[in-house]
């Protein structure tokens, strides 16, 4: 009886681990988390305002100014070192994508037993998610239709536009708007690439890579270029897209396996 209970316990544990490893589990969880966080930021816009104010420095308005805006600036946006770091991080996802393309081409040069189909699938997931996530979903769609002015563009932080909450889609911005952050989305995509590392290296390098990927979103808030919600949802959006693409490839893999084994 004890052996049976232990076997059932191990089976349940293995089943839980297997469920946790499946892309569909990650997709459903991350997708739900994205909407939950959006709801929180929408219901409590003061979270964005508190975070932005932490990096904003008020100053006197120009002599003769009659508007009611709060004058000031974001000091971090004037620091040459931080500006350089921000530009560096801007191009890192592009450089990494180029490396993945080269690795895929190298993998395609193998034939027969030396060809690694799993590696090709993983590279394909990474590249396709970079196109669908940071580029298509964020920069071409959400940043175009959101209408949300950036912090430094609003009258609360030295600009002229009215503040718009996350997810309202009715702000006064006309193009390249604040919701959501493209650079944070690129950083989120880079964080997803931790899965390309061998399992034994993920534990060692995963936390370091994740911390480095958080630098870019932090700078976007410190510069007044985005609100906390913009970078949080931007970062997470790439994780959602990455998981969705992984689900698609897993589904195709299962279909191919079934077609080869079915009578």
From TrEMBL:
Transmembrane segments: 24-44, 88-105, 125-142, 201-219, 231-249
Name of a matching Pfam family: PAP2
Keywords of the record: Membrane, Transmembrane, Transmembrane helix
Signal sequence bounds: none
Domain Phosphatidic acid phosphatase type 2/haloperoxidase stretches: 126-251
UniProt xrefs under InterPro entries: PAP2/HPO, PAP2/HPO_sf
Name this protein carries in UniProt: Membrane-associated phospholipid phosphatase
